[in-house]
Amino acid sequence: MLKIAIIGFGNLGQSLAKTFAHLGHIVLAHSRCEHSKMAQDLGISYFSNPQELCEQNPQVILLCTSIISTESVLKSLPLQSLTHDTLFVDMLPVKEFSKALLLKMLPSNLAVVCTNPMFGVERGKHEWNGSFLVYEKVRIGSDSVGISLCDNFLNIFEKEGCRMVEVSCSVQDKYVAGSQFITHTVGRVLEKLTLESTPINTKGYETLLDLVDNTAGDSFDLYCELFIYNKNAFEMFDRLDLAFNTLKKQLFGHLHDIVRKQLFDSAEKVHAEYMVCNPSHNGAALRSHSQVLNQKAHISEHYDDKSMLKIAIVGFGNFGQFLAKTIIRQGHKVLAYSRSDYYDVAQEMGVIYLSDVEALCEEHPEVMLFCTSILSTEKVLRSFPVQRLMRNTLFVDVLSVKEFPRNLFLQKLPLDFDILCTHPMFGPESGKNGWNALPFVYDKVRVGSDKSRVSLCDRFLDIFALEGCRMVEMSCSEHDRHAAGSQFITHTIGRVLEKLGLESTPILPNGYKALLNLVENTVGDSFDLYHGLFMYNVNAIDQLNRLDMAFNSLKEQFLRRLHGVVHSQHFENASRTLLPNHPENAAPLRR
Ligand code: NAP
């Protein structure tokens, strides 16, 4: 067991003290503020005076101080009287700086290890298992006592399940400082938005909530220090600003496109009429009748069970295809129709692809599943020959906003069609390993009371229930209230971060890993989807503004802090040079 003195008894110091004491080590602590009650509760000895702490001859002195205070803390220690074998370990988040400082301040007989624990952001959970502990043995004596003391100390973390990585401080800074700074910045901006958990959180939104939890608990001092002592921080802040502005320009540009299109609608109409007369110019050229018949014959061999549904997917893009895979696997018959030609993709999946909407309706699917983009749904529905469908066809949509398709279906569909509005709260990335426990929201907007209609709706819902989805029945308006804000923010953050071109590093702090996942989850989606969230969420502009304000307020907080630092430096320099009674000027004058 080791005798470990922790200097700096803040969040990190207390968390480490708890674990060390739990493992049976003797723990001593000292900090700027009075923490003796807390120390007593943890069963460790607290010293308000650092000299007295050092008189206890700790084997390890662990610096958990803020970056800015470390130099003065070291000055307050009786360094010359420490025993030859004392090992100094620091846990500062910027490594080149701390290494240089320790080498400058400590007598050469004292050993130095610089570490960077990557479990800081997981502090709330007291979980070290699987997190990285990155370290450099900066100065370890060659005698066996010094070597084994260092190994014993590092073993504590290894035994707790930390992934130990030995690299130089400069490499640590390269890998870690940048990613930590971005993670903390995003966490703090989001904290200002006071995000709230909803009953239908997506994985992406939960990532954001976790991030806020994990970063907002850290002191603002720590965050500022990451900025001040990280050479690249200013540039990163600028890039974040630029990325956000570029995204806003993109959104507003699209908005302008739409308005312009509406204004010049008549020209579009002429073009559309031309396309009808010249179908070969259409991207989804009509397939030959025999091609489609062959495909149907092939598929109907596998489709004889009457309990299975015949589902027509309208809009066979990214999400339509993703859903089709599971629906087909469950044995249902799937037809698809889309603007573009997906014949080959469909054939490979065992889906019958029809590029003619009339032909699709004449197949009499029991369910029409709309997987079109939010922006195009109205146009697609308007051009639908619904009179060719069977009565009691169930219309389902999966749009990421819900009140809009609900109202659209209610307005446009005759009363003998049923309406089920749904939102699978996952996508091809977050649902790639199965849909178990992922939320599936639905609202039976209009389902006829007779048995067959009720059963058709339930059999459709069973597709998702069977995959283990968490089935949440909720009105469309309640869905929009819960989801629209959280989704728009999640997608916006994902897209801003995408623009930064964040890179994976061999040492991934957990918070940063979560950001990389978020980017992966959101950028796979089309810009149309994101734009749909923006257009059909009445609060989107407000949310964009709030995000803007949060970012600006963080910048302002920074600016004030930087101003404070520079001001006090100047003031101090000035008093050193100008005031004859300043302590530093006093000696020469006396002489
Ligand atoms: P999307 O960009 O929202 O939609 C693409 C689909 O819309 C394609 O099938 C596309 O047809 C069709 N489309 C776009 N513009 C059209 C137009 N002018 N006329 C006719 N069709 C048009 O991407 P998505 O990810 O596939 O999403 C589909 C729907 O699912 C959206 O409403 C989305 O909100 C919802 N959703 C998506 C996810 C997800 O994670 N991706 C999750 C839940 C719900 P072509 O491909 O033939 O051009």
Question: What is the topology?
Answer:
Elements: E1 3-7, H1 11-22, E2 26-30, H2 36-42, E3 45-46, H3 50-55, E4 60-63, H4 67-75, E5 87-90, H5 95-105, E6 111-117, E7 132-139, H6 144-159, E8 163-166, H7 169-192, H8 203-216, H9 220-228, H10 233-263, H11 265-277, H12 289-300, E9 310-314, H13 318-329, E10 333-337, H14 343-349, E11 352-353, H15 357-362, E12 367-370, H16 377-382, E13 394-397, H17 403-412, E14 418-424, E15 439-446, H18 451-466, E16 470-473, H19 476-500, H20 510-523, H21 527-535, H22 540-578, H23 583-590
Parallel strand pairs: 1-2, 1-4, 2-3, 4-5, 5-6, 7-8, 9-10, 9-12, 10-11, 12-13, 13-14, 15-16
Antiparallel strand pairs: 6-7, 14-15
Helix pairs in contact: 7-8, 7-22, 8-20, 10-19, 19-20, 19-22
The structure holds NADP nicotinamide-adenine-dinucleotide phosphate.
Residues 315-320, 338-340, 371-374, 376, 379-380, 398-400, 423-424, 427, 525-526, 528-529, 532 line the site of NADP nicotinamide-adenine-dinucleotide phosphate (NAP).
Strand order of the largest sheet: 3-2-1-4-5-6-7-8
Distance between termini? 52 Å
CATH class assignment of the largest domain: Alpha Beta
CATH arch. level architecture of the largest domain? 3-Layer(aba) Sandwich
Weakly predicted, low-confidence segments = 277-285, 582-591
Rg to the nearest angstrom?
Answer: 32 Å
| Class derived from helix and strand content | alpha/beta
In CATH terms, the superfamily of the largest domain is NAD(P)-binding Rossmann-like Domain
Helix content: 40-55%
Mean pLDDT metric: 86
- Report on the biggest sheet: 8 strands, mixed
- The CATH topology annotation of the largest domain reads as Rossmann fold
Total number of β-strand segments?
16
- Principal-axes geometry comes out as elongated
